[in-house]
Amino acid sequence: MTKRFLAGALCTSALIAGTVFLSAAQSNAGTTRSEPSSTSSSSSSSTSSTTTGESTTTTTPETTTTTPETTTTTPETTTTTVAPPPTGAGDATVITQGGQSLEINVGISNTLHFSPGIVHVKSGANLTFTDQDTEADPHTLTLVNPTDMPQTIDQVFGCQPVMPGGPPSGGQPPAGQTAAKVVARQAEGVPGGGPDNNVCNKVFQIGLGIDPRIADPSFPPEGFTEFFDVNHTGGLSAPYDTLLIGNKGSITEPVTAKAGTTLYFMCVIHPWMQGVISVEA
Fold it and tell me: Rounded to an integer, what is the distance from CA 143 to the centroid of its chain?
C-alpha cells in the first residue's frame, strides 16, 4: 500500500515536474519569440532611415539640373532682338564683282559682273555704284536701250570706242585682233550698226564732249568718279546717263526716272556686264 502510494506520489511528482518543465519551456519559448520582434523593430527603424537618405539624395540633383535650363534661355532672348530698319528706304546699291583667271591649255575666263543684276529702287531714291572686283579696271554703269545691248561674242568684242585717228579701246585693240578686224566686227554684228554708232562708241563720244580726259588710256585714276548727266534731269533717267568709276571708286546719284519705268544698263568697258533697274513708287 505504502509502495503504491509512493509510486503514485512519484508519478504525481513526475507529472508536476513535467508540468513545471513544460511551463518553463513555454515561458522560455515566449521570451525567445519576443527577441526577433525587437530585432524586426530595429530593422524597420533602419529601413526608415535608409528611405530618408534616398529622398534627400534624389531631390538635390533635380534642383541642380534645373539651373542650366534657366541659363540657356538667355541666348534665345538675345538672338530674337530685331535691329531697327535702315534709313534711306528705297535706295539701292550695285557693285562690281569677279575677275580674270587663266587655266593653261583650257582658256582664259573673265567673271566680271554686276551684283545684283536686277535692281529695285524707288523713284527719287539713291543708287550707289561701287567697285569691289579683283581687277584694276574702271567701269561704267550706263543706261542704254535694250536693243543696244550686245548678245553674242562678236557683238561683245565689237562694242568698243573708236578713237579718232587710231584703233579702238584707248589705243589698244583686244588681244589677237587688229583695229581693222574690230571695226569690221562692229559693222557686222553690233546692235545699232556700224563702227561709229555701236553703243560703246556712242557713250565714248558723248563722254568726250563732257570730259576730254577719257581719251587718255590711263584715265580714270584709282578712286575717281564722275556722273555724265546726259539728259539733264539731275539723276539717272534715260539713255545714255552714265556713272563712271575708277578702280575702287564709289559714287551715289539719285534715280529720277518715274515710277514704273524699267531701265537697262551695261558697262561700256566690259559689254557683257548688263543689268536691269526696276523703278518703283
Answer: 31
Range picked from 11-15, 55-59, 205-209 for highest mean pLDDT: 205-209
Could you tell me which residue, 189 or 220, shows the higher pLDDT?
220
Q: Does the reported pTM lie above 0.90?
A: no
Alpha-carbon distance of 65 to 63, in angstroms, equals 6
Number of Cβ within a 10 Å radius of residue 39? 10
DSSP string across 177-229: --HHHHHHHHHHHSTT-STTSSHHHHHHHHHHHH-GGGGSTTPSPTT-EEEE-
Return the pLDDT at 160: 87
Please give the grid coordinates belonging to residue 229.
548727266
Handedness of CA 39, 45, 47, 50 (dihedral sign): negative
Q: Which of 217, 60, 202, 128 is nearest to 194 (CA)?
A: 202
- Give the CA dihedral 79, 84, 86, 88, nearest 10 degrees: 170
150: helix, coil or strand?
coil
Average pLDDT, the chain: 72
HSE-CB at 226 with a 13 A cutoff on CA atoms is 18
Which single residue is written with the C-alpha cell 524597420? 44
pLDDT at 207 over 90: yes
Burial level of 194, CB count in 10 A (0-12/13-18/19+)?
A: middle
Measuring CA to CA, which residue among 176, 165, 170, 92 is closest to residue 137? 170
Predicted confidence at residue 196, as pLDDT, reads 56
List the grid coordinates of 1.
500500500
**Can you name the residues that pair with 117 across neighbouring β-strands?**
none
Which cell is 79 given? 538672338
Is a pLDDT exceeding 70 seen at residue 10?
Answer: no
Q: Single out the residue of 109, 205, 114, 214 nearest to residue 161, CA to CA.
A: 205
